[in-house]
Amino acid sequence: MTNSADYSSRRVVVGYLSVSTLFTLASSLIWAINTIFLIRNGGLSIFEVMIVNAVFTVGQMAFEVPTGVVADTIGRKASLLFCMVTLMLSTLLYVATPVWGLGIWGFMGASVILGLGFTFQTGALDAWLVDALDATGWEKPKEKVFAWGQMASGAGVLVGALLGESWASSACRGRMWSGRRYWQWPSWWRPSSSRTSASPPGP
Questions:
Q1: Is a pLDDT exceeding 90 seen at residue 103?
Q2: CB within 8 Å of 126: residues ≥ 6 apart
Q3: What digits encode the pLDDT tens for the residues 52-69?
Q4: Strand (E) positions, the chain?
Q5: Distance between CA 126 and CA 200 in Å, rounded?
Q6: What is the mean pLDDT of residues 84-112?
Q7: 120: nearest Cα among 78, 90, 58
Q8: What are the φ/ψ torsions at residue 8 (nearest 5 degrees)?
Q9: What's the pLDDT at 58?
């Protein structure tokens, strides 16, 4: 018979797997098209794209320890909330950079904030899982749950990358189709107009 402790532990595991899957799915939506976005919309070169990606990595390395202190002092849930808010703000800045014409400096600033947001999540979610399982009386090996989390994250990455690539391809095809219709319309219109203008006037 299932007791309340097992039920609570199962809810903790399901919550952990759900958050891991959704987090990696959402973050991987742009991975397939990030370089294309930076080049086409941001006007960056390949070298500048590499600089932006390097700044993101450096930001993650720089903020890993400070955000871990936040998770240990303020709390795991607070760290995850900081993660969501920071990622939302940095994503808005990332998208607004081409609109405002901030260039590579805008993307570099957004990448630093993105790195900060990701470090709020790394470690805090796993630490929350350990604390929650201990509080609910989980007696099975926790490594199994972490392995499930890795598989769920991998599935989220795969699905997110495929969805991002699919949406980007659909948008590009729609833009190309609109462009073809725009440029073909004069070619459809000119022959009839030329024939009309070249035809001799009637009696």
A1: yes
A2: 146, 149
A3: 999 999 999 999 888 888
A4: none
A5: 83
A6: 93
A7: 78
A8: -65, -40
A9: 93
Q: Using CA atoms, how far apart are residues 107 and 87, in angstroms rounded to an integer?
A: 14
Check whether 104 has a pLDDT greater than 70: yes
End-to-end CA distance of the chain: 100
Identify the H or E element spanning 167: helix 142-198
Q: Report whether 36 contacts 168 (CB < 8 A).
A: yes
Residue 102's SS3 state is coil
Share of the chain above pLDDT 90, in %: 44
Q: Where are the domains of the chain?
A: 7-189
Tokens read off for 55: 């700044």
Tell me how far the alpha carbon of residue 55 is from its chain's centroid: 17
Tracing tokens 């939302």 back to the chain, one arrives at 88
Architecture of domain 7-189: Up-down Bundle (1.20)
Q: Which of 95, 103, 105, 110 is nearest to 33 (CA)?
A: 95
Cβ count near 11 (within 10 Å) = 12
What is the pTM assigned to this prediction?
0.73
